[in-house]
Structure formats: structure tokens, C-alpha cells
Amino acid sequence: MSEHVHHERPAIRDGESRRVPLLRWLFAPLRTLYKVWFALMFWLSLLVLYLPFKILLGKERRYRTAFRLKRAWAFFLQWAALLPQQVTWEGPLPKPPYVVVSNHSSYLDIVHMFNLVPDYFLMMGKYELQRWPLFRIFFKRMDIAVNRGSRIEAAKAFRRAAAAIDRGACVVLFPEGTIPLTVPRMKHFKDGALRLAVEKQVPIVPVTFLNHWRLFGDPEDLLSRGHPGVARAVVHPAVETKGLTDADVLVLRHRLFDLIEAPCWNMKLDDATLDRIAELARLDFSDPARRAAVLKDMERVLSFVEKLNEVDTSGVEPLIFMTEEENVLREDVAALTISKQDALRNAPAKDSDYFKVPRVVDKRPS
Fold first, then answer.
1. I need a labelling partner for 245 at 20 to 30 A (CA). Which of 195, 231, 236, 286 fits?
2. CA–CA dist 334, 329 (Å, integer)
3. pLDDT in tens, 42-54
4. Both 155 and 281 in a single domain?
């Protein structure tokens, strides 16, 4: 397993290495049918709504109405695609404006972001979205396309985002910049979102989309994942930026990365995992009562470890020793401390210069 981007904990295992090759091919026809269904629901509904969107996006004063229509569209899509959202709220949303950052593991993230965040926001997305038919209308008018290939264009995009915050709008973006090929393992975060929040001194709301990568993979890859299911998300407590400066961005980036990544490490042991552990350790968990007890104990251990991950250790120096006390040892000098005769004097049996002990290995033929 590869190393983590900024600390010693191993990186999360990528999704492709978890797949069983036989099942990948066996269920390919069903996944293809599901993706065709999703595409039909998405593009047909957008086609129906295109004219209302075009009218609403014609003037900036109607953008908030367009946002409400986008939320209604996202609500329809989650049920039409059989992907209802389930949210765990670990803290309330702050008063707008604020910046929302999340991991990016699927195009489903964009749809469910509108189901998740009720306050008016602008979405920042990659420049290539302007080339999508119909869908590009949002990034040519209301939302903000970021051309990361050009420093000047990227700076203009973030200036637009800063102006939107000044007007009271929230901003949503994915600091990884794209969907990593190693999902659910996250990519290194870019600083743009964090510098924006620090500059405007507005809170940052971290969000984790837990299983979007399992539910809907690359739509252009027929062998990628795709099936109905509950889309789970975690909204973390808002992170304040008041009083922070550009010098704090690095620590802030690491803190947000760990916050967003932590729920992906929450491991719930299932029967298959327990069987694998039993096989590796050569243990027998065939008894149902013993099996249930072991499963419960192991989940308690994992929960305790995850609890430790909640502690903010930013700025804390790692320990090499548990205490700062030093052992006082004598100098390592060779010296005669006891003679051979003195050592043999208390031996129960001896032979010349050696202790005599009972035979342990019997070399005689049996």
C-alpha cells in the first residue's frame, strides 16, 4: 500500500484493487443497463429544463431562482436514478457565506451537493465542463469554470468566487481538482479553496462522500462501477478561518484532508473480512457465539482507534520516547567481575570448565 500524502499512515487502498475480476465481467451487462438508464434520466430531464434554465440564467438577479430549480432537479435525479442520499450531520451549517470542500470520487458528487447544501452557492468546476452539451450553460453563466492550465485564468476564476462571497453567496469546490484514478484514495489538495476562505475569513465546511465511487464510476467506462444504492455523506463541523493568514494554509490543508478522509477509514468488519483474518491467523471462529463476540470486540478496537483520529495534533511534535527521562548507565568497559572458579563453585554438577546439565536431545536410534 502506498504512503499517505502528508503523514505516515498508509494511503487508502484504491477501488480497482478491491474488485473481483470475475464479478467485474459477470455483472458488466447489468452495469451498462443501469448507466444507460442514468444517462437517459439525466439528459432527458435536462432537455426538458433547458429552456427554463436559459431564461433564468439570462440575468444575474434570477440566479437564485435558477439555483432552486437546480436543487429540484437534483432531488428528482436522486430518486429517478435510485440513489437516495443519507447524510450524517456532525455539526450544523454556519451562517452564509461559507466555502464547502469535499472529496471528489464520482460525477454523482455534483448532483448530491445540491441535495446536501440548502444555501445558495456557486459551483467551481473544471474548465472542461464548458464543453458538455446543454450542461455547459451553467458554467458559462452562473457557476465558475477553473482553467488550471492557465495561472491567469485560474486567478480570474478565484477573483469571481471572492466577489460572490462578498455578495453573500457560498462557494463549493473540490480541492483535488479532478476525480482521482485511485478513488476512494484522495489526491493532494490544492490551496485555492483554502486561500479563498482565509482571504475572506469565512468558515470552511468539510464534506465526505463515502460511497459515491462504489455507486457510479466513470460513465464512459462500461466496466466501471454502477448500481443503485443509498448515497452516504458526512458533513463535518465547520472550520473557522478568522484570524488565520496565508502562513496557516499548509496546516489547514492537512487538517481538512484528514477530516474528510477519516470516515473513509471507518472500517466495519463483515463476515468475509473476519474469515480472512481467521485464515491468516489460523484461528477457528466456526462457533456462532464465539464468532459474534470476536466480531464485536474487533469493531470496538477499530472504533477506539478512529476516536484517536479526531484529536487535532497539528503543531504537536512526534514523540520518540514516552518520557524525557534518561537512564543512567555505567560505562561499557570490559572488566573481570567474577572468576571461572567462583562461577563454577555453586554449580550442582560440573565437568572441568563447564556446567553439566541433563541430556535434552537423544541421538540413539529409536
1. 236
2. 14
3. 999 999 999 999 9
4. no
Is 233 strand, coil or helix? Answer: strand
| 155 and 285 inside one domain | no
**Same domain? 294 vs 178:** no
Domain count across the chain? 2
How far is it, in rounded angstroms, from Cα 247 to Cα 250?
7
21's grid cell: 475480476
Q: Are residues 255 and 233 in the same domain?
A: yes
R_g of the chain computed on alpha carbons: 30
Predicted structure pTM score:
0.71
Last residue of a domain, one of 240, 265, 290: 265
The half-sphere exposure of 230 on its side-chain side, counting CA atoms within 13 A, is 5
Within a domain: residue 319?
no
Beta pairing partners, 206 = 101
Where is the domain boundary, 203, 235, 265? 265
C-alpha closest to that of 122 among 196, 211, 46, 212: 196
**How many CB atoms neighbour CB 5 within 10 A?**
15
User: Do 175 and 34 have their domain in common?
Assistant: yes
Q: What is the pLDDT of residues 240-296, one digit of tens each?
A: 999 999 999 999 999 999 899 888 765 566 677 788 788 888 888 888 888 888 888
CA distance 124 to 113: 12
